[in-house]
Specification:
Strand content: 25-35%
Strand order of the largest sheet: 5-2-1-6-7-9-10
Structural class: alpha/beta
Helix content: 25-40%
Radius of gyration: 22 Å
Shape: elongated
Number of strands: 17
Distance between the termini: 56 Å
Length: 317
C-alpha cells in the first residue's frame, strides 16, 4: 500500500516511523516549511522532514494546498507531486495546513487523521493540553476519516489512556506511540476491507483551542487544583509563569492541597526543601520545579539556594 504522509512535529514523526517499520511504501511526505528556531533563529527542518530525508523520501513543503488561495503555485506543485505519488491513502498527523476537498478526494481510501483525543471531545489544535487543564480522567487517540470539517469525520479506531498526574510532555510521548500503532492497524484493516466507520456523536463536542503564550501567567485566585492542572498542561509549552519581586519565574510542577489558606491568593506561606507553598483562591499550591529567566529547570530546593523567597512575599497577580 502506498501512503502519502502529512505531518510536522515529533508527534507526527513517531507515526511516520511506525508506518515505515510496518512496511508501507511512502512515495511522498508533506510537512510545513522550515521555520526559524533556537537562539540564532536559523531555519530548521521539522522532525517529520528530518525523518523523511534520513530515509530518502521525497518531501514537499507547500505554504498552502488551496489552488485558489494565497499561494496557488505552491498548491499546484504539491498537486503534481501528489498525483505522481499515486497514494492509496494519505495519513495526516498534526500537519498544520487545512486539506481542501481535492486533497481529501485524491487517495482511493481517502485521508486518515491521527488525533490525540477521544472524539468528539477536544477537536482542534491542542487536545492534550486542554484535556489536562480541564481535569479529564482520560484521553486517548482517535483515527478519523477526514472530511471538510474541523475534526468532524467518522471515527475508525480509538484507544483510551488514563491521564493521572501526567504532564502534556509525558502524555505526548505515550499518545504518539499509540497513534503510530493505531494507524498501522487501521491501514491494515482498510487493506483487508474490514475497517468500519462510525459517525461522531452529536453530544459531547468540545474544542481545544490553540495554546497562546498569553495564557501562561498563573491566576492565584483560582482553586489550587486548577492551578496544578495548568502547570502540567503547559509543560513543555508555554510554561506557567509567576512574577515575584519583579522577576518572572516559570513554574513547571506543583501539588495542590485543599483547604482555606490563611492569606491572600499568591502569598508565599512557606519556602524550603519541600517546595514553595503559595496560597490559592481555594487551597494551596506547593511549587516543586521552577526556572529563572535564562536559567535551567530545577527543583525548588535548588532554586532557593540562589534565590531568596520568604513567607509573606506575594506573587504578582
Amino acid at each position: 500500500m502506498r501512503i502519502v504522509f502529512a505531518g510536522t512535529p515529533d508527534f507526527a514523526r513517531v507515526a511516520l516511523a511506525a508506518l515505515h517499520a510496518a512496511g508501507f511504501e511512502i512515495p511522498l511526505v508533506l510537512t510545513q516549511p522550515d521555520r526559524p528556531a533556537g537562539r540564532g533563529m536559523k531555519l530548521q527542518a521539522s522532525p517529520v522532514k528530518q525523518c523523511a530525508l534520513a530515509h530518502g523520501w521525497p518531501v514537499a513543503q507547500p505554504r498552502s494546498l488551496r489552488l485558489d488561495g494565497k499561494y496557488p503555485d505552491d498548491a499546484a506543485t504539491a498537486r503534481e507531486a501528489l498525483l505522481a505519488a499515486r497514494p492509496d491513502a494519505m495519513v495526516v498527523a498534526a500537519y498544520g495546513l487545512i486539506l481542501p476537498q481535492w486533497v481529501l478526494d485524491l487517495p482511493r481510501l481517502g485521508c486518515l487523521n491521527i488525533h490525540a483525543s477521544l472524539l468528539p471531545r477536544w477537536r482542534g489544535a491542542a487536545p492534550i493540553h486542554r484535556a489536562i487543564e480541564a481535569g479529564d480522567a482520560q484521553t486517548g487517540v482517535t483515527i478519523m476519516q477526514m472530511d471538510a470539517g474541523l475534526d468532524t469525520g467518522d471515527m475508525l479506531l480509538a484507544e483510551s489512556l488514563a491521564i493521572g498526574e501526567n504532564s502534556t510532555a509525558q502524555l505526548h510521548d505515550r499518545l504518539a506511540e499509540m497513534g503510530g500503532r493505531l494507524i498501522v492497524d487501521a491501514l491494515r484493516q482498510a487493506e483487508a476491507g474490514t475497517l468500519r466507520a462510525q459517525p461522531q456523536p452529536a453530544d459531547g463536542v468540545t474544542y481545544a483551542h490553540k495554546i497562546e503564550k498569553a495564557e501562561a501567567p498563573i491566576d492565584w485566585s483560582q482553586p489550587a487544583a486548577a492551578i496544578a492542572r495548568r502547570l502540567r498542561a503547559f509543560d513543555p509549552f508555554p510554561g506557567a509563569t509567576a512574577v515575584l519581586d519583579g522577576e518572572t519565574l516559570k513554574c513547571w510542577a506543583g501539588q495542590a492541597q485543599a483547604g482555606v489558606p490563611q492569606a491572600a491568593p499568591g502569598t508565599v506561606l512557606a519556602a524550603g526543601t519541600g517546595g514553595i507553598v503559595v496560597a490559592a483562591g481555594d487551597g494551596v499550591v506547593t511549587l516543586t520545579e521552577l526556572q529563572r529567566a535564562g536559567g535551567k529547570r530545577m527543583t525548588a530546593a535548588a532554586l532557593l539556594a540562589g534565590f531568596a523567597v520568604e513567607p509573606g512575599q506575594r506573587f504578582a497577580s
